């Protein structure tokens, strides 16, 4: 079995693979200050509660954009699973041609998403839209070439910014409004958050299609916690919320000959 951990700014998104099949997903807040023991005990517990024998975990793949957690994650895996985890980082084998000025700036989550995307849709032009804490766009050209991307505030960050920087605008549930024109402060905010984000997504896709792909819309692959919020808008070719986990598994397999 393989344990994959996507360590993001809001959550640790974990998944367990058995014979290539994703059999479990779980989340743990990454905003908590956690020791290696707290993390290790949680990982063991969540597996046990889902009828998975944790001693069967033979490999662990980690993609982290929170460097302050890396030491605790590694220590937890070594102590509680007796496995040296693989961390996706610069220099890892990816199968991608990364055509950006500074590849070291590229987050592990975006690399993993891109690896899984080109594996699922081989030899295609693609835009991968990840709707999480931030909303990111990764641009992939036929031949597994990574061209670059776009980063904008995620929809929840936008809501928090409104609440924290105004005196009268409350936090709201993030939902798809029934109508664009809101009639209360809450529905005004919900409409602005949803339709503002939707307009940004569509606008960026259109600009990228024109600038990079000669006006032809490529495959649009969505992932991340808020991806299903926009599923009825018909702007995505496919929605794969667990894309990053598949990317971490694939990267681990590409780097199996690593020295540990």
Overall description:
It is a single chain. The protein is α/β, with parallel strands linked by helices and 260 residues long. The chain folds into 2 domains: 86 residues, ATPase, nucleotide binding domain (Nucleotidyltransferase, domain 5, 2-Layer Sandwich), CATH 3.30.420; 150 residues, Nucleotidyltransferase, domain 5 (2-Layer Sandwich). The strands form 2 sheets. Strands 6-9-8-7-10-11 form a 6-stranded mixed sheet, sandwiched between helices. Strand 1 and strand 2 form a beta hairpin. The longest helix is centred in the C-terminal third of the chain and has 28 residues. The chain is globular.
Main features:
260 residues; 5-stranded mixed sheet; 11 strands; Nucleotidyltransferase, domain 5; 2 domains; single chain; alpha/beta
SS class: alpha/beta
Q: Estimate nothing, just give the exact number of structural domains.
A: 2
Going by CATH, the homologous superfamily of the largest domain would be ATPase, nucleotide binding domain
Helix segment tally = 6
CATH class membership of the largest domain:
Alpha Beta
Percentage of β-strand residues = 15-25%
How many β strands by DSSP?
A: 11
């Amino acid at each position: 079995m393989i344990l994959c951990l996507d360590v993001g700014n809001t959550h640790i998104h974990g998944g367990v693979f058995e014979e290539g099949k994703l059999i479990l997903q779980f989340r743990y807040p990454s905003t908590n200050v956690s020791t290696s023991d707290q993390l290790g005990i949680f990982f063991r517990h969540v597996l046990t509660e889902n009828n998975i024998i944790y001693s069967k975990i033979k490999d662990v793949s980690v993609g982290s954009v929170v460097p302050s957690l890396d030491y605790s994650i590694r220590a937890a895996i070594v102590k509680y699973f007796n496995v040296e985890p693989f961390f996706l980082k610069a220099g890892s084998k990816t199968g991608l041609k990364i055509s950006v000025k500074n590849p070291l700036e590229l987050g592990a989550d975006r690399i993993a998403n891109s690896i899984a995307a080109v594996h699922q849709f081989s030899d295609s032009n693609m835009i991968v839209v990840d709707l999480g804490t931030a909303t990111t766009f990764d641009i992939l050209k036929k031949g597994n070439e990574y061209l670059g991307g776009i980063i904008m505030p995620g929809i929840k960050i936008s809501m928090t910014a409104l609440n924290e920087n105004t005196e009268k605008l409350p936090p709201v549930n993030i939902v798809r409004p029934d109508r664009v024109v809101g009639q209360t402060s809450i529905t005004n905010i919900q409409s602005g958050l949803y339709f503002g984000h939707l307009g940004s997504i569509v606008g960026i896709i259109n600009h990228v299609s024109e600038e990079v792909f000669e006006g032809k819309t490529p495959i649009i692959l969505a992932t991340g916690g808020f991806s299903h919020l926009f599923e009825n808008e018909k702007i995505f070719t496919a929605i794969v919320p667990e894309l990053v986990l598949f990317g971490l598994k694939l990267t681990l397999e590409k780097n199996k000959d690593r020295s540990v």
